[in-house]
Amino acid sequence: MAISGISRSVTASALQKAALGSPATSQTATSSASGGSGTGGSTSLLLNALADLTAVLQSYANASPGPILATSGPAPETLPITKDAQGGTAKVSNALSQITTDPEGQKLIQLAEQKGYKIEIGSTGEKAAATTDSKAKKIVVDINAKGLDSYNLTATIAHELVHASTDGNGDSLLEESLSTAVGNRIAKRADGRPETAAEATADFKKIYSDYKAAYKGDGAVNGRQDNGILKALQSLGLDVSPFAGVI
Ligand SMILES: [Zn+2]
Fold this sequence. Notes:
The chain is α/β, with parallel strands linked by helices. The chain folds into two domains: 70 residues; 155 residues, no CATH class.
């Protein structure tokens, strides 16, 4: 990870030097033209100097293409896809790149990547479209799961990344609900329709209520209502204010 980041940063720097090399050469020509205007002060020399200056400014403008800005800065982290039993690598890669360009998604991916998580595409053997195995450090995505369109795939993987990035504290009803709420928030932003705080709160309340109804008895997952997930997400730098104190 670190090696890849350094390598990209060197490439961007080299590109920048190469791009700046062209105007620097032209500038030398301008200096000599300006020197010429000093000796005679003739109009034609001044016009030549102005023409050179225009050329230099133009070359600077041409030498600042978008790709240099796009490749500068740290390379986004992502998770390796180590197995694809269903031919879904392109779809999962696309979802991962959406998540990694989201400010909150990037935090989740970075932590999951540091913990050594990988992604496998195959049957989860359950009703869930995806599962997180905290022991094997892998997220399994069933690309053929019903209703798993591009938006839901991003939301589902982001949900699993909440589990993966906070895998030291087990699971709970609150963690399941928050994972879905955060996953939806990331997917909606990636889809160009970010939630307001009020919408995020309403979304979370409904999700929690649905999960609670699905888990009869005490309403807990793995016997617990809460496993400290709200504080864990807050410490990762995620905005939990729309979810805190509403249930
Ligand atoms: Zn879950």
